[in-house]
Amino acid sequence: MPTVPVTDPAVSEPGIFTGATFPLGPFTPYENNPILRPRGDSWESANLYNPAALVDGDQVLLLYRAHADDIVSHIGLARSSDGYHFEREDAPILSPSEDYERYGCEDPRIAVIDGTYYLTYTGWDRHSAQLCLATSTDLRTWTKHGPLFEDFDTFATVDPRGFNWSKAGVIVPFQMQGTWWMYFGEGAIYWATSEDLIHWTPGTPDAEPMYAPTPGSFDADLVEIGTSPVLTGNGLLVFLTNGATRTVHADGRVDVDYRCGQIAIDPDNPTRVLARLQEPWLRPQTFEDTHGLVSNVTFVEGLVKFGGTWFAYYGQSDTTLAVAVHDPAQGWGSTVTIPDGGGSR
């Protein structure tokens, strides 16, 4: 049996946010989105999106991706006392410094375990996108551990790249079956384990994903792990995910449509997806969702429970950053009055 730490739901360290449901929601996009935009003529002047999120005391922290017109991504830090209004730091907290990431540190996810921040991100060299790991105890000074996987293509069963490709990684912040677990991948989703949280071994070859696109669905062409997991009252791990369809035109142009889903995993059987949300809980709707560097994209990477409310942070068309919220007091079917005593329906 896994040892699942039960913590105050307002605190992300140590452990995991609790009190979730499957499916989690409904979520409502904030009426004043986007909550963060590019600014000035600095490193974040062109596009700002795809944030990891965590709670630090009485604040929500976002670690977001941003870049100037050169499209070389850095990771910035912003803080909020209400989950909606954020103050940004002027300088990025993580920037490219190594050859494998010379054109960008992209799409962060974060876990906090025993006082250490484990930041996974994509290192981009304009050929391979490789899942990388950096660690820190203060969000300022980082130790980079480099790409996590060799000879692994997470598009192998979907649209093979033929070389290293392993974007997106989410670390479960407690051990299951006596070891540490990560879920990772763009195209399809895989699992990996570790004894030290630094060195990771895929559980299967790239020809055997744990979770693949569903034909005819909103994630027919691509799936990608989204947020760190949260824990339901009956013990399931719930992950917000991303999925896409792609339309290739005769002239070679490719249109995409990225929507957000959910999956549930039983910690007693962590190599299988127990349940999948068949309909997306978030889809491109607003002007910012449908216009940008890559249009028609809602892409979630951050989920926290703060002040009793669930906040899901997502990128809009790779250009701006938005939030959708779920009040647990407002469940599914809130427009229907069900008489006391139930009865047949």
**Helix-strand makeup class:** mainly beta
Note the main sheet: 6 strands, antiparallel
What is the straight-line distance between the termini?
39 Å
What's the β-strand tally?
22
The low-confidence parts are 1-14
Helix-strand pattern: EEEEEEEEEEEEEEEEEEEHEEE
**How confident overall, as mean pLDDT?**
93
Strand content: 35-45%
Q: Tally the helices: what do you get? A: 1
Q: Indicate the overall shape.
A: globular
Backbone CA Rg? 19 Å
Q: Portion of residues in helices?
A: under 10%
Describe this structure in words.
- The protein is mainly β and 345 residues long.
- It is built from one helix and 22 strands.
- The protein has one helix spanning 287-290; strands at 28-29, 47-56, 59-67, 74-80, 87-88, 105-113, 116-124, 129-136, 143-147, 169-171, 180-184, 186-187, 190-194, 201-202, 222-225, 230-231, 237-248, 254-265, 275-276, 298-306, 309-316, 320-326.
- The strands form five sheets. Strands 12, 15, 16, 17, 18 and 19 form a six-stranded antiparallel β-sheet that branches.
- Mean pLDDT is 93; it is low at 1-14.
